[in-house]
Write a structure and sequence with these properties.
The protein has about 300 residues and is of the alpha+beta class. Helix content is about 35%, strand content about 20%. The protein is built from 3 helices and 12 strands. The strands form 2 sheets. It has a 6-stranded antiparallel beta barrel. Strands 8-7-6-9-10-11 form a 6-stranded antiparallel β-sheet, with no helix packed on it. The longest helix is centred in the first third of the chain and has 59 residues, at about 55-115. The N and C termini lie far apart (about 165 Å).
Amino acid sequence: MASERQTDQDYIRPVRRILIGAMVLFLTLVFLVWRIDSPRVEQVRTDLIDRIVPSFDWAMRPVTRVAGMLENLQSYARIVEQNQELRRELQQMRAWREAALQLEQRNAQLLDLNQVRIDPQLTHVTGVVMADGGSPFRRSVLLNVGARDGVQDGWAVMDGLGLAGRIAGVGNRTSRVVLLTDTASSVPVLIQPSGQRAMLSGDNSSYPLLEFIETPDELRPGDRVISSDDGGVFPAGLLIGEVVQSRDRRLRVRLAADYGRLEFLRVMRSRPVESIVDTGRLIVPEIPRAPDLPGDVVLPQGPNIESPADE
């Protein structure tokens, strides 16, 4: 057995060398033929390509498919990267959109603060909402203006769009605002165009109740609600909102103030109404003056009116 294996190895080695040598020689000839610059050789090369290459189409199909799959994988990887990049850009755009909306709303509030038409006798001081001091049972906010700015208890507070509440507690540098939605808030209001008077009472909901209405049948959803000066609580004519009807058929008010974004509030400096106690000084009688007449004309005698000099 050992001799047979030795004989096989003796045959295999020469055959391997012959095959390797023939392959090297063939490749060398192909290289030389391919590099020869001659019209005849060029014609031979063209004929060989026309005869051999089409017959190897079946062998090139797997290679072509593999190359196509690689290109598809590369394009898929590029699509995934582009998708991730688009998602990042979309997220950034959403953040910028939210910031733009907040800036737009703040700008609108500031513009409203400058353009709201109010009683020319009223002045105001604008403060920034420092914190929301509200709770499930109390709706209030804190402002960065207080007694040093002349703020007093009971003054009306607006957000530029409508009445938001009243001052209830003043410190040196801060003050607390009780909103209209608080249960402790009761404001006399006037409803237009019917001219009816009512009380706006908060119940910790977004739509305060209208109570003590004279004739509720005359009210319609959308009627304008403004403040009344009854009792001297608020100045008259401040916009509050519009009438709406809830599901329980009760009349409520959709507030004009945007409670979701209370950032700047205007404290209205209310001056007490001057009271008239002495009616005698309202109208002072005028002393009639005699016209220039000739000397022989006698004036009729009237009532004796004493002048201040005679006194």
